[in-house]
Write a structure and sequence with these properties.
The chain is mostly helical. The chain has three helices and no strands. About 85% of the residues lie in helices and about 0% in strands. α1 runs antiparallel to α2 and α2 packs across α3.
Length: about 130
């Protein structure tokens, strides 16, 4: 392999690593959003329980039911988002393993590339998350 070929392979591997990190970052952001939605539901219900009795309106029971239903929907949607983010994080772990296998294949093709990647190849393909 020429030096240009090795540099092209290294750029490709770095791009794959960046893509993996972007996938992981996106899934973590989605997880944080889901957790926030799950926390807002019960908190909002508690606030409504104290605030709504202060308003003396005729349709207060209807407003209460609508507000509580909305907060229940927000909580359930948050749980759905958390589940989806968890699945995405598991999939990113599989992506990392595929990237490590590609690195191994490239390293076997060139001794110079093997020297560059020997620290990465010595570590097992693990994620920091799960």
């Amino acid at each position: 392999m020429s030096e240009q070929d090795i540099l092209a392979v290294v750029r490709t591997l770095l791009a794959l690593e960046r893509n993996y990190l972007a996938l992981e970052r996106t899934a973590l952001a989605e997880l944080r959003t889901g957790i926030t939605l799950v926390v807002i539901g019960p908190s909002g219900t508690t606030v409504l329980a104290y605030v709504l009795p202060l308003f003396h309106i005729i349709i207060r029971p209807i407003v209460e039911w609508i507000a509580y239903a909305f907060l229940v929907v927000i909580t359930l949607y948050g749980l759905l988002v958390i589940y989806h983010a968890y699945r995405e994080l598991k999939n990113t772990k599989n992506v990392l393993q595929r990237i490590r296998l590609q690195e191994l294949d490239f390293a076997k093709k060139s001794a110079a590339l093997n020297l560059l990647l020997k620290e990465i190849l010595a570590s097992p393909p693990t994620s920091h998350l799960f």
